[in-house]
Amino acid sequence: MPQGERACRLRSLGTSPLAAEVLIQHRNEAASSGSGLLTPSIHMTRRDEMSYGARIADGRQVELCDECGFDGRDIVDDAAELVAVCGRLAALVDERQDASERPGPEIFSATEYVQHSVEVIEGILGYIATVIGIQAPQVGDLGTAVGVARAILPSITADQRAALLYDKYRFPASVDWLLQHLLHDLQHHVLDIRRGYACITMSALPEVYTSRRDRPL
Ligand SMILES: [Zn+2]
Predict the structure, then answer these.
(1) Domain coordinates of the chain in residue numbers?
(2) CA 168 to mean position of chain CA atoms
(3) How remote is the CA of residue 191 from the centroid of ligand 1, in Å?
(4) Is 55 helix (H, G, I), strand (E, B) or coil?
(5) Domain 77-203, CATH 1.10.1060.10 — does that match?
(6) Is 122 in contact with 139 (CB distance < 8 Å)?
(7) How many angstroms separate the alpha carbon of residue 183 from the centre of ligand 1?
């Protein structure tokens, strides 16, 4: 097996399109294999796609993930969480010489994942803006994403959180779930970038000491 393939079990570009609309369409198509409204959590193959989906818990749509441990009920401050994850994404590309290096030919570099994340933020906040009747924000980078998060999210009311988006997903998606889904997606992109760096480093350091009994030193 080629070294890069051995080292890199990352999501390929094929399941991580650049455009948020395309991404969401891709997920809609994936969700079409589900069996009904809201009930299925759409578990994709773990190496290809994060687990995601809306479940009803505590009377609300909740996103749960058995890969990263995300539980939407843990989110108590959407704005603070979005600001924090934007900070983590920025920190992952700041002053990194390998930020633009792809771990593999079909795998995003860190900077590409950040740009993709910015597009996802703009796309999903745009959906939310449509539902609650405000102007869709323009999000060009992580800095503007932080500003938009602080400007829009704290003022979303409980009634607005319960409002539903009907035409973008295979189920009516609440604003509450959209926010959870956005934060969850970005959490995975943080992991994607970290895995990418590890992959690059592992490829540069091919010798490995292993604890596997069938592969002694
Ligand atoms: Zn997850």
Answers:
(1) 77-203
(2) 17
(3) 9
(4) strand
(5) no
(6) yes
(7) 10
